[in-house]
Design brief:
The complex is a heterodimer of chains A (about 260) and B (about 220). Chain A has about 260 residues and is mainly α. Chain A has helices spanning about 10-20, 55-60, 75-85, 145-155, 165-185, 200-220, 225-240, 245-255, and strands spanning about 20-25, 35, 40, 50-55, 65-70, 195. Chain A has 8 helices and 6 strands. In chain A, helix 3 runs parallel beside helix 5. Chain B has helices at about 1-15, 20-35, 45-65, 70-105, 105-110, 120-140, 205-210, and strands at about 170-175, 180-185, 190-195, 200, 215. Classes of the chains: A mainly alpha (about 260), B mainly alpha (about 220).
Chain lengths: ~260, ~220
C-alpha cells in the first residue's frame, strides 16, 4: 500500500511529468473541443495547428489522427549551436542557458492561506507557457528537453526533417552535460548549497541518488564537528565578549 | 520604469488560467513535493476535495458515454479514460507517499495531527494499535515493566524516530526570497535565492519556503 520508493522522483515519474507539457499538433481529422479534467482543449479543425498536452498528442499520433510539429529548439541547427556552446572550453563549468523565465505573476501568500492556494501558485515546468510548442524560444533548452526529445523521436520520427541527426545530437548533448555534472561532484560538501542552474529533469533524476548520498554522508561525518562549533558560538553569544580567554590575555598584556 | 509598466501590463492582459488547470498544477506540485521531501507536508484539503469531486463527475460522464457506441464518441471516451487514469495515478501516488511516511514515523506523527487528513488520522490510530498489540504479544510482555514503553524519553534520548530534517533535497526557486542560511563545516553562510536557481540544499533550510510556495522541490 505504502510507496516503497526512496525520496525523489524516478526517471519514469519524470517522464510522466513531462507528458503534461504542451506541444503543437497539426490535426488530420476534426474533433470537438473536450472538457478534460485538466482544463478545456481547443477543437481540432484541420489543418490549423493546435496546442495540446503531450500525452494527448502522442495518443492522436499513434492513431494517425494528427501530426506533431517539432518544437523550435529540436532542430539540427539549434542543437548544433547549443552543443558547440557546451563543448567550448570557456563554459566548462556552466550549462547552456535554459529558456527565459517570465516575470513572476504571484506573490507570497498571506498568513492563513492554505498550502498550495491558487493565489500563491507560481507556474513552473511542465506548465510554463510555450516550452515545447512551435512558438517556443528558439535558442534554449527547456527543463524536460531530454524526455521530450526522446518521446517525440520515438513516436513521431516522420514529422522531423532529419531524425537521425537530431537523435545523434541529443545523445552528444546528453553525454557532454553528464560529464560536466560529474566533474561538478568535486565541489559537493556537507553544507549543500551547490548551484545547478539550467540543468534538465532527467539529468537530475540520474544524479540524485549519488548527490544526495554524498551530501548526507558528508553531513554525518562532520556532524560532531558542526555540533561543537554551534555550541561554542552559542556560549560566546550568551556569555558576552569577556568570557573568552583570548580577551583576558590581551588585557594582561596591556599592563 | 519600463520594467514596471511591462509587469503591470503582463498582469492585466494575461488571461487567467482556468481553475482546473491551476488545480492540476497544484496537484502535480503537491505530488512532487511529497515524493521528494523527507517530512510530511501539510495536507491540501481543499485541493484534494475539489479534485476528487471532479474525478467522480468524470467517472459518471464516462459511464454514461459508454452506453452509446458511436465511433466518434468512442474515441472521445478513450481520451477521457486516459486522462482519468493519469489523474488517478497522481492522487494515488501522492497518498501512497504520505502513507509511507506515516508508516515509518508513526509515533512522531501521532503528536502532529494537524498535518494529517481525518482519514489519515484514523489510519494512524489503527496502524499504531496494531503494531503495539503485535509487539506486546510477541515479545514486549516478557520484558521487565520499566522497559516496556515504546516512546521512552528517559536518558535524554527519545525512542521516537523523527524524520531526518537535514536531508539534502533538490529545489528550484520560484520567487526571489532573499537569503537562506546554510551550515558549512567551519562556518555558517548565507546565500541569496533568485528566481530560476536550482540548488541542492538541506531540507531544514528550505522547508518554510516550500510551504509558502516560494521554492519548489524537483
Amino acid at each position: 500500500m505504502a510507496l516503497p520508493l526512496p525520496p525523489g522522483l524516478t526517471p519514469s515519474e519524470v517522464g510522466f511529468l513531462c507528458e503534461m507539457e504542451q506541444v503543437t499538433i497539426i490535426p488530420r481529422q476534426r474533433l470537438d473541443g473536450l472538457e478534460l479534467l485538466g482544463g478545456p482543449t481547443e477543437p481540432l479543425r484541420p489543418p490549423f495547428p493546435v496546442p495540446l498536452p503531450l500525452w494527448l498528442a502522442l495518443l492522436l499520433k499513434k492513431q494517425k489522427r494528427a501530426d506533431i510539429s517539432p518544437p523550435t529548439w529540436l532542430s539540427v541547427e539549434v542543437l548544433t549551436q547549443i552543443l558547440d556552446f557546451e563543448m567550448d572550453e570557456r563554459t566548462a563549468e556552466l550549462f547552456s542557458p535554459s529558456q527565459d523565465l517570465p516575470a513572476p505573476t504571484t506573490t507570497a501568500p498571506l498568513d492563513g492561506d492554505p498550502y498550495l492556494a491558487h493565489d500563491a501558485l507560481e507556474l513552473s515546468p511542465p506548465f510554463l507557457k510555450d516550452a515545447a510548442t512551435s512558438r517556443a524560444q528558439k535558442d534554449a533548452l527547456p527543463y524536460h528537453w531530454n524526455e521530450l526529445g526522446h518521446l517525440l523521436l520515438t513516436h513521431a520520427a516522420d514529422n522531423f526533417v532529419e531524425p537521425d541527426m537530431v537523435r545523434k545530437l541529443l545523445r552528444d548533448l546528453r553525454e557532454v552535460r553528464m560529464s560536466k555534472l560529474r566533474k561538478g561532484f568535486k565541489v559537493l560538501d556537507a553544507g549543500a548549497g551547490t548551484q545547478l542552474n539550467n540543468v534538465g529533469g532527467m539529468e537530475i533524476a540520474e544524479v540524485r541518488g549519488f548527490v544526495v548520498g554524498v551530501v548526507d554522508g558528508l553531513r554525518r561525518l562532520n556532524h560532531s564537528r558542526e555540533e561543537s562549533r554551534k555550541e561554542r558560538e552559542d556560549e560566546e553569544r550568551e556569555n558576552g565578549i569577556g568570557s573568552s580567554s583570548y580577551r583576558d590575555d590581551e588585557d594582561e598584556d596591556m599592563l | 520604469m519600463d520594467d514596471d509598466i511591462a509587469d503591470i501590463l503582463a498582469s492585466v492582459s494575461a488571461p487567467a488560467l482556468p481553475v482546473r488547470t491551476l488545480d492540476l498544477q497544484a496537484l502535480t506540485r503537491a505530488w512532487v513535493n511529497e515524493r521528494t521531501a523527507p517530512e510530511l507536508l501539510p495536507y491540501p484539503t481543499d485541493l484534494v476535495d475539489r479534485v476528487m469531486e471532479r474525478i467522480g463527475k468524470q467517472i459518471s460522464t464516462i459511464e454514461e458515454m459508454s452506453g452509446t457506441m458511436d465511433p466518434q464518441a468512442n474515441f472521445t471516451l478513450v481520451i477521457l479514460q486516459t486522462e482519468l487514469e493519469r489523474f488517478k495515478f497522481l492522487v494515488r501516488s501522492f497518498l501512497r507517499a504520505r502513507i509511507a511516511k506515516i508508516d515509518t514515523y508513526t509515533l512522531h506523527y501521532a503528536t502532529l495531527p494537524s498535518q494529517l487528513s481525518p482519514l489519515e488520522r484514523q489510519y494512524l490510530q489503527s496502524h499504531q494499535s496494531l503494531i503495539s498489540t503485535h509487539y506486546s504479544t510477541s515479545f514486549l510482555s516478557t520484558f521487565p515493566t520499566s522497559l516496556q514503553k515504546l516512546d521512552d524519553t528517559a536518558g535524554g534520548i527519545s525512542m521516537v524516530d523523527k524524520p531526518d530534517e537535514d536531508a539534502a533535497v533538490f529545489c528550484r526557486v520560484l520567487r526571489d526570497t532573499g537569503n537562506v542560511e546554510i551550515q558549512g563545516i567551519s562556518e555558517v553562510a548565507e546565500i541569496e535565492m533568485k528566481r530560476g536557481d536550482v540548488r541542492v540544499l538541506r531540507w531544514s533550510a528550505v522547508k518554510e519556503a516550500v510551504e509558502r510556495g516560494d521554492v519548489e522541490l524537483i
